[in-house]
## 1
Amino acid sequence: MSSFYPFWTNATVAHESQQHHFPCCFPQASIHINDIFCTDHAAKEHDMKGDDAWETIILSNYMIDFEWLCQAVPALAMVQKQLIVLSGEKGTATVRVVESSAGSGDGSCTKVTRYSPVPESQDNHNGMIWAAIAGGIPHEKIVILEPPLPYLYGTHHSKFVLAINKHGIRVVICTANFIHDDWVNKTQGIYIQDFPFKSNVLSPEGGGDSNMGAPCLPVDDYQLRKGEDFRLYLQLYLGQVGLLPLPRGNKSRQIVSFSPQDLDAFDFCSAKVWLFGSVPGSHRGQRLMSFGINRLFSVLRNVSLSTEAALTNTTNPNDTQPVILSWQYSSQGSLNDKFLKAMQRCMTAPDVFVADLQVIYPSEDEVRCSLEGWRGGLSLPVRLRCCDPFINARLHRWGSSGDSLSSASELWRYALPHIKSYAALDRARRSIVWFALTSANLSQAAWGVGGGGRRGARPTRERFPLYPLLRAGGAL
């Protein structure tokens, strides 16, 4: 599964219902959830067997319906080593990260961070683990972790998959929960890219060569730095969500078989995107520029747009030309002028004029006529007190306004958006300057802007999302 621009959408009921009447209604870039776990190395009916079986799978999401997921993705029950779940649902963990004191030879004590199983009891009924077992996943092969949250009202909102087999690693970042409605009734965005083992690092089966992902040689220094940034940031993020950096041979690896340092074995130099995410808490020092809107600001400032365009052989709009910003989301929090100006400032170069800002949001008619009807509006929560005149004046409808069902774009209006995306276009709307696929709605909590007004405070965040950012002057 590969693409020059590795972004996909989900195949909704609306598109599939019209596929036989209007073949063009089924977008070529649309996939089902099971496609995420398919490989190109064998016939589809044998994808998850033998050499192509996934050894380790890491699932991260806010909502997971294992009863449905195991039916939709048979590959989960065929995982060879371990299925690691990072769950946003509280009270589902089977393993926790704990700190303990360990004595040393000189009489001092050091803190040791380790995994500790959560005792099972009749009072602690874990519906998620039993649903996974009922779906065919062996009990001994699944562990569930809950990322640490410094706030009671914080959430683990990150939606991604890491899948490893003998060919390499697949990185998937999406906007959909692992539930039925999100994948068949709503519009979602999906980033997928495969990366092989390093040529000088042997895979677990003893072979370093791989056809998984694009070959990385020859490659220039810029792309090497981009791949290194991808790996380091993914390692940083995985450490923040509770995966411990454990050395090989540590007995704790029997509890959780993957650590962020395992990413060192893979070659990420073919990475098409930059990663940025948010981590709950108040960050200072070097960490201040590592998360949220500050990370977006850092990437857009430090990445050479002309270099990206040269690598992709695409037209490069001048960095100083006016741009159109596009904000597309499904909810918004309480807004103020300071936050809105900060968002625009971080999404453009210092000398770039914002010609227009378009906010994409479903209209009342689009909700009423959607696949879910009025019920679909439950996924579009905007309180009246959160409405803002600046946003209201820039609203654009979600879907096409035509009555025809003869094209894929005209059917999107029936699948309400759960996708969140932010982008900058050139003024003529002929090329994209950058594009970010996110799970972040328009709120200060999601983007990490504002420190609560306390002296010396730093931007705070309440969620754990992870996003891919495409920075290129590519023609639309």
## 2
Amino acid sequence: MIKDRLIKTCLAVIPDEQSHYAISPEIAMTSSFYSKSYEAYVAASKDEFNNYVYTRGSNPTTHKLEVLLAELEGAQRCKVFASGMGAISATLQSYVMNGSHIVVVNSIYSTAMKFIKSLEKFGVSHTVVMSVDTQEIVSAIQDNTDVIYLESPSSQKFEIVDLKAIADIAKSRQITTMIDNTWATPMFQRPLESGIDLILHSCSKYIGGHSDIVAGAVLGTTEGVGRVEQNGYLMMGSTCSPMNSFLAIRGIRTLPIRMEKHNSNVKAVIDALKDDPRIEKIYHPYIQQAERSEKYLDGYGSLLAITFTDKDTTKLQTFINTLETFLIGVSWGGYESMVLPGYKFDNLETMKARGLDITHTRLFIGLLEAQMTITDLKQALSIAYD
């Protein structure tokens, strides 16, 4: 399976005569496309997703990225957006209406949760299930449930949902399932094969891989993604620039190699820290939910979270400020390691409401040699907690 995906990335955008056999894809940096005749314009304007009329609808460089992503996920169709939230918001609003209900599974990306809450003013309700237990998720389904939205592994605690079980139940009740697959990428998880309807990606993370683009995508059947194109994409105006599409294609070419390194690095770091008495808990599928990990994952993304035995937040500050190979900041998925504390001095109640410990800290393990990262983490632990 992984070998097949590797071949597809190696053959990403095969040079042809139309592109003058350029090894790298051409960047169609244009806003508009002219038509050769009145009749040609009329025909193209009636289907601007499959014809080049205006880059807000479709663009040759972005289309190449969409075809490549669809190949990797085993999807019939893909639509690329200017950001992950562009893809999430356009997709969700395309599948709900006044009176709809959404089941949100466990913790998801906080801005996605804010968007779902914002739909309340349009008569769209939601229920958050803070669990990955299948029966608890099913119990939250109502007669008017139109969407089950999830991340697997989930944000914050990185727990795995039984995708096939949820997909089977949803299909029997004509409910659309959506998953954010950013953490695992198509290299390590292919949710469509488990029956999930739509996949979402923040291409800003592993797919771009260099911390230099913001982009997103939705993938699924031609009909499923077509509904997003017709009802959300054009109206939301979240168009990916041709340059960012080009950079995402560049990132995909090294995706298998990078993910293999992230996988080995994160396992080495977890093995080095899992018995450290200063660390209370490590949240990552490598050491939790072994059966589901084996069932759904072909490898591990390198985003995890830890909590500390000592709850003194001044020591937490010292730990983070003492790290030498980690950058403090949001986002992840590039070369560099990143650290992000959950506690922001005035958000303790919010953290408690989300079931998070005051010392909950997110770590992204980058592409430095694992031993360098381990040495850095241990020296910071010693300075802060010994």
## 3
Amino acid sequence: MQCKATGNPSPKLYWLKDAKRVDMTNPRYILNDGGDLQINNSEEDDMGKYECVAENSVGTEHSKPTVLYVKVRRVPPQFSRRPEALSEVMLGSNLTLTCVAVGSPMPYVKWRKGDQELTPDDQLPIGRNILELTNIQHSANYTCIAASTLGIIDAPAIVKVQSPTEVSISEVTATSVRLEWSYKGPEDLQYYVIQYKPKNANQNPNRNSTSIL
């Protein structure tokens, strides 16, 4: 924005925005030698009515006001990376759920387990939120929520704990027993751990393990 003034003595020039003096400590604002005001990387907060003021010992003169409009690109939140809709894990497993959202302004991203909020309101990350689950014991429904002033979106993430089904016992002897079961979980299963404890025994259970290829 341009400003020129003459006088005797030579006037000092400064700018007003909405009747308040422009804060020239802002590194985006530059007052050129001739008195022109340069605004770099304009933001929404820069919008307003600007006036150039010329001042010397004789008096003060204001320019005609100039209204600055800043066109702001607004984009509602949208997911650039959704969490897996369904994750099947073994009991006691660990799992990482990642959720990424974009928009303008950038949305904050938080996690919810059922009706329970998992992300503190004073620690809401912008754009991305990674949920680390450890020693998973139960199936649960999680929701990733992305929100800004332009809207709220969510993406469900179901974590399902797999366990053997249709367990049957056969070939029982005094020292052994045969167990059979079916399993429909991930194919990279390596083994089950079978625990047993004698009735009324007050000691840690012994453990046997069987590898399943």
## 4
Amino acid sequence: MLNPVSRLEKNFVRLLARCENYVPQREPNEWRLEQYVKNLEERLAELKKMNTCQPSKDTLAEYSRRVEFLRGVVEAEKLPTITEKALANQLLSHGTFTSASNKIHQQTKAHYLREMREELLGTKDHQNAEGIRLRQINANSTQDDLDAVMQYHNSMQEKVAQEMMSLVQNLKQNSLLAGHIIRKDTEVLQKSSSMADDRYSRLKVESEKLEVYAKKSCNWCVWIMLAMVCLTFMWMIVFIRLFPKR
């Protein structure tokens, strides 16, 4: 059964689709995109606070990922160097939401790579004939520089991936060690509990024996006292008979 869609969600989805379609058509560093993304974030926060007709958790998570992707595109454009922009764009989550997200990522990636190539080749600063001649002479070296930059970015990504794998392995080892310690403590606790139960049962048996013994000893004392009283009484009668008053 489909959940009812609120008017706020309809407006949010419409604005989100408009932003995703607007990004490939706009000029770089255009200020309106940031305002659109800010408006999307505010509406998404309102959607999360709704009590009635609220979207499902999966739908909200998808909306959040798409808005975060657009925010990442905006923040990447604010970085000072083209190298940082390209690296930030490369680290963005993409490709799993919509075709518009994939299109945005591919377009921004191509744009930043083109700007990096132009910056390395000097097309922005050397438009005259002398610059063209020098660029032709140093074409091999600039291509090597471009390859070095790309290799540097690849090595940085591999380093980050290795660090993440190392962190995951450390977390796994720590969790296994913690589980082993918890199992040991559980075994010790179970042994202590079983020993306590055993000692309690033994103490109960000994208490019952002591109680029975105490009852028996008390009965013997009573019988002995009664026997002594009877003997004393009989001895007094015999004494009176043997030595009557004169």
